[in-house]
Amino acid sequence: MAKAITIDERRVRHLNQIEDQHGTVIYWMSRDQRVRHNWALLFASQKANQLGQPLEVVFTLAPGFLGAPMRHYDFMFRGLREVETRLRELGVLFTALYGEPGKTLPEYAASRNAGALVADFSPLKLVRDWKQEVAPGLSCTFYEVDAHNIVPCWLASPKQEYAARTIRPKLNTLREEFLTDFPEPELQHQPDKLPPPVEWDEMETLLKVDRSVKAVPALEPGEAAAELHLRDFVDGRLSRYADERNDPNSGAVSGLSPYLHFGQLSAQHAAFEAARSKASEANREAFVEELFIRRELSENYCYYNERYDSFDGIPEWAKKTLLEHTGDRRDAIYTPEQFEQAQTHDPLWNAAQTQLLETGVIHGYMRMYWAKKILEWSATPAAAFDIALMLNDRYALDGRDPNGYVGVAWSIGGLHDRPWVERPIYGTIRYMNANGCKRKFDVPRYIAEMSGSSQATLF
């Protein structure tokens, strides 16, 4: 008899009022695309064992997702191939459905006589809408499990938090309860034989997406690659993180954001490993602050503010000060195309944009500078917000993510910040300039590296 998996019940909630039925348990894998360290998969496997039924994992491939180009699908598909292989080794069927989830998923659940459907959590409006469309078409229980956050988003706070200082004590109160290691999935009722694997090449041809944005073949996706990156960081660069993370030349950052975005790595697992590493407490806590407090603050914002992807969603004080300075003279105003092609007068900004275009990432400190200069060189703050979000979502492998939305809203719209000294264009929004960057790192070196190599990355 396999031992029971212990899952904190506060991580799970019902999305309908139907009781468990006698039938296959389906885990609708969406945001958390991994087999290990996945509370949603663990809950689904536990439910399957309780019902004496097999577990099946389903991935729904919509024709498009918030404008994501082929770069992102390439990274995701290569990771999903690994997920399927790992699941088949456990005797778990992995099925990929093409079409809108609201239609395809209830139909498939009915065809499998599903006893329960388990979904992972996302605060994004589109995914929440999908779940609202799926729920009425089901004749089985519908569960949602927050497998993406260390503390479940709905438990961390019942409201939109003002800043890191207001959510930090709430998260830290629950930190010891939720920052734990993971059990392994154990399944008791899997079939002896599985049908043929997914035809991934055929699935890719069905997508109606922009294929002009090049993939990033130098960055290996998937659960195994994510674990290697984590180990490399925890055993090496974490010891320099607190002092050097804002220097894009230092290589001190984790480089984990694409893996966290696609759910190929668990933030809880990463934080747990960092917290028990040999690095100093200052370095451990600096990393956990970013991975836990700041990241889950972003989740909180997107969960409680439906305008998270709009200039209209920023704080009223920030909106007021920016609009008061809309008419201020700008040294330059660039079109979205000029920004996209890294054609500004600033070599440092162009280097950051080139890094984004070529590698799918921008160093975190440079992303703040990058966004603030878009504010400075756009006709209006609302236009700047839209341009920054478009570029981030189109080229960054961690685009269309709460961290991205909040990063733009913080840089341009003062979100989770406070008023600073008033100045032209910015009003009382926090200011950044190239001289500040020069005080923190070797700017000419960064520009040279970004300009000289199409494979330059800062992982």
Automatic annotation (TrEMBL):
Q: Which GO terms describe its molecular function?
A: deoxyribodipyrimidine photo-lyase activity; DNA binding
EC assignment: the record states 4.1.99.3
Task: Enumerate the spans annotated as Photolyase/cryptochrome alpha/beta domain.
Answer: 23-153
Could you confirm whether the keyword DNA repair appears in this record? yes
Gene Ontology BP annotations: photoreactive repair; UV protection
Give the protein's cofactors.
FAD; (6R)-5,10-methylene-5,6,7,8-tetrahydrofolate
RNA-binding keyword on record:
no
Annotated keywords = DNA damage, DNA repair, DNA-binding, FAD, Flavoprotein, Lyase
- Reactions the enzyme catalyzes: cyclobutadipyrimidine (in DNA) = 2 pyrimidine residues (in DNA)
Q: Which domain of life is it from?
A: Bacteria
For this chain, the family text in UniProt reads: Belongs to the DNA photolyase class-2 family.
Q: What is this protein called?
A: Deoxyribodipyrimidine photo-lyase
Q: Which organism is it from?
A: Chlorobaculum parvum (strain DSM 263 / NCIMB 8327) (Chlorobium vibrioforme subsp. thiosulfatophilum)
